[in-house]
């Protein structure tokens, strides 16, 4: 990839392109593996740190170290996360009206009893990598429908939720488009108050609580009926994330 290609960033002005170039020079000097990362990724880290090159470089280099430690082979296979996959928590769906791939998370299916935090972290990265791989050219974000129907304290896993927030915000910055929180029981709000404190202001804005009576209309405003799960009034069946 030559210098001209590296600076070719649709949607960026000249000043932002220069900052991306500065960030690339800085991180490549520290870790040669940064040469394999595209400019769009560097731009996401830069934007997540308000275009501060120094802060973005620190976080990006931390990301490279984290990824090497979590997935030495460069990816996570289904054999690395058998327990998490057995719960059938996460499903792929279609695409929203902005072209963002949709995932459906059945929160109550999560089983914290006996779970290993390291495997859960691998599963979170696996799910996010799968979602990112489905993004069409020019799209950098995904949409999530988090269905909390049937959730109770036996499903609660605050430590796991905070691990997911940490991974999403620090290692997959600017990837989340929107989260629809649906069928939210009142008791979940106690856990939400804890989670909320760990969400940065920009991420908080992406979580939308949907009332039951407004569910279909709210989802259809963002997602065409042909791309919506059957269980929410659409036409697509749920497909386990590992089949994507």
From TrEMBL:
PROSITE patterns: CRAL_TRIO (PS50191). SMART domains: CRAL_TRIO_N, SEC14. InterPro entries: CRAL-TRIO_dom (IPR001251), CRAL/TRIO_N_dom (IPR011074). It holds the Pfam family CRAL_TRIO_N. Residues 78-240 form the CRAL-TRIO domain. This is CRAL-TRIO domain-containing protein.
